[in-house]
Amino acid sequence: MIAFEVHGEPVPMPRPRVASFGGHSHAYTPRGPHVAASEQIAREAKCALGNREPLEGPVEFWLNVYLTPPKSTLKRDWG
To answer: What is the spatial distance between Cα 72 and Cα 57, in angstroms, rounded to a whole number?
Structure first.
């Protein structure tokens, strides 16, 4: 089993955009804070993997996200 933690606030990935240049369409994802978050996740995963070979075949993936409830949320509404 390989386990690692990534600290920080979750960052949503923006929707892909489509632009047309010279009659050709091109899909891209706008750059933003999600890029730094993705790079942080990749660094943590590489560190946890160490010098092992990359995984092949089916992989089971568990994700735990811990959030602080917004101050505007009532306690009875927050699980």
So the answer is: 44
For residues 35 and 41, what is the distance between their CA atoms, to the nearest angstrom? 10
Local confidence band at 77 (pLDDT 50, 70, 90 cut-offs)? confident
Strand, helix or coil for residue 28? strand
Rg (CA), the chain: 18
pLDDT tens sequence across 19-74: 998 889 999 888 888 888 889 989 998 998 889 888 899 989 888 888 887 888 77
